[in-house]
Amino acid sequence: MAERLTLEEVSYSYPLPGREDLPALDGISLAVEPGEVLCVAGANGSGKSTLAQVCAGLLAPTAGSMGYGGEKIEGRRRLLSFRRKVGLLFQNAEDQLFADTVFEDVAFGPRNHGLKGEELETRVASAAGHAGIDLDELGGRSPFSLSEGEKRRVALAGVLALDPEVLVLDEPFIGLDFDNGERLKGVLGAYREERGASVVIVTHELADAWSLADRFVLLDGGRCAAVEEKSELVRGDIELAGLGMRLPQWGALARGLIRCGVAVADPSDPVVLARAMAERRRASDGR
Amino acid sequence: MGDADSFRMRMEGVRYRYPRAGSDALSGIDLEFEQGRMYAVLGRNGSGKSTLARCLNGLLVPTVGRVTVGGLDSADGASGLEIRRNVAMVFQNPDAQMIASSVEEEVAFGPENLGLEPALIRGRVDRAMDLVGIRELARRQPRKLSQGQKQLVAVAGALAMEPRFIVSDESTSMLDHDARERVLELFGRLRDDGLGIVHVTHFLEEALLADTVVILEDGVVADEGAPADVLSSPDEVRGLGLRPLEVTVVIRELATLGHRVPAGVLDIEELLSWLNA
Ligand SMILES: Nc1ncnc2c1ncn2[C@@H]1O[C@H](COP(=O)(O)OP(=O)(O)OP(=O)(O)O)[C@@H](O)[C@H]1O
Ligand SMILES: Nc1ncnc2c1ncn2[C@@H]1O[C@H](COP(=O)(O)OP(=O)(O)OP(=O)(O)O)[C@@H](O)[C@H]1O
Ligand SMILES: [Mg+2]
Ligand SMILES: [Mg+2]
Predict the structure, then answer these.
(1) Pairing of strands B212-217, B220-225
(2) Which CATH number characterizes residue A69's domain?
(3) Closest approach of chain A CAs to the CA of B210, in angstroms?
(4) Smallest CA–CA separation between B276 and chain A, in Å?
(5) In total, how many domains does chain A have?
């Protein structure tokens, strides 16, 4: 079971040679609640990947502090112990892949955690299955000889194989085909339920996390512009266009329906949307 | 070089098998790409999209069959430079492409390899950076940009080549809404000006902008045609491993509830006008 992860007034700046530091995150305060799916969304360069690496304990904030389970993450020992609980999927799969074979790549993390023999095999097989990687077919291949989508799924399997209680995924849906994307959504939902894990989905596309996320953190130039729920996004509480984003199609349809006076219970479910429309047609046909 | 009308990229009976691979990544492709048209290439992971793209710019030479660009056979080593001059490529992973120490040098890399005059290169580079909206990144180190920013640099690099064809391998996958619109609008305008565009994508919305859609499955062409013909049936689209358009899914649900939406409705506005009609 995950615990509460908190960021307090966290800032991060990248040093640029011969120039002023580049502030990528500026005073971010947020909490990832145990067992929630949190979406971090924003335009290109808004600081999403930087925030993902901060959340995973890989980049140390240049200002502000972080806590996990009520304890401050400070000092080497606490940082290392926190890192063991988090799995980070990098936006670029090649930053993650390194082994000679797909199997060894996925096995690296759990091996490091002390798993061996059958336990290791099982862990690797299950993670690969969840990521849609057929080990019989790809297990012996070099990860660098795969198609991009295959690479990304091997990297994902490597992270899932760590069985982390906090899962931070930087653009996990990029490059995945429809079936693999849908599979991943199912896997993440189940993982959160069964493992009690917290899942942070970082994306430039709200549609990716639309059906999964409980809350959406919207970044704008390194600052947190808002934290919203789906219903608030549909209602238009915040102007998404100004943040370089748009409502996903389902959300836009839900908004259109609500504006026409049709109530929508779940703005991510096509069946619900269709029923609402059918009722409206029946009502107007009857008039 | 023939005139624009006759300048085509052609794949004839193309098979490609990677070294040491147990099966073909492309297993018999016949396609023709004309200038002034946009082609969208769709398909599952591993279906051969990137392999097809790499064959078109001569990076890979077919194991069987042939690829010709403006009549030049890509298997002929001497035509390599000429093919790359005419067919610019945006790779799926922009990281693989970032080598220079500044963004402007990165964008200039292609034209420099063509041996153009420095002043000419300067103009092209500035224009390309303006078109994709990365002027303020000109002096930054490409490797130290965000992934989406890198992808825009890669697109600018292809534009600066002023090629006859752009082969874009998922070049919009990491772009935010505004950047994506900008690039797609640009592709549209360039197409109208006579450029040929082959755009690999997982987004059906983008495929709708194309003149022709090509769907790959296991290294062969599973379907080819006008977007509205190929993409309007959610079940067919799904069967090919693609994400159906949301609107078509709702329309199918409505049909099961006894409400028939007229054919050809593919976006939300149209659907809402039907609702309120
Ligand atoms: N290694 C680095 N060195 C210097 N600056 C960097 C580095 N990585 C990112 N930046 C800059 O920090 C800012 C935030 O980058 P980040 O990668 O977090 O954005 P992002 O929201 O993930 O964008 P994208 O959607 O393009 O992936 C950008 O302005 C970027 O140029
Ligand atoms: N360098 C390589 N060596 C061996 N096999 C390869 C290599 N690159 C790709 N393949 C294989 O060739 C097939 C087609 O790969 P390709 O990269 O063309 O697919 P794709 O349609 O672009 O997929 P994606 O959507 O994942 O990018 C896949 O089965 C892949 O594993
Ligand atoms: Mg990023
Ligand atoms: Mg590919």
Answers:
(1) antiparallel
(2) 3.40.50.300
(3) 19
(4) 8
(5) 3
